[in-house]
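re: that chain from earlier
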Amino acid sequence: MLSDRIVVMAAHPGRIAQVIDVNLPRPRDEQSYATEEFREMEAVVRDALRAQTEKAHV
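^ sequence. v structure.
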């Protein structure tokens, strides 16, 4: 919610797997959670985390 960039780390060996730029307008508050842009960004982050989790379990 507060960051302008999200860094997703790879599980093995602890490298940067992906950098996601957050281009949501500021100021951000609780109402930001309800926007379509926030939901899309959340989906991108969750997908990136899920991909790294799956790679760690292979």
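Strands lie at 5-9, 16-21.
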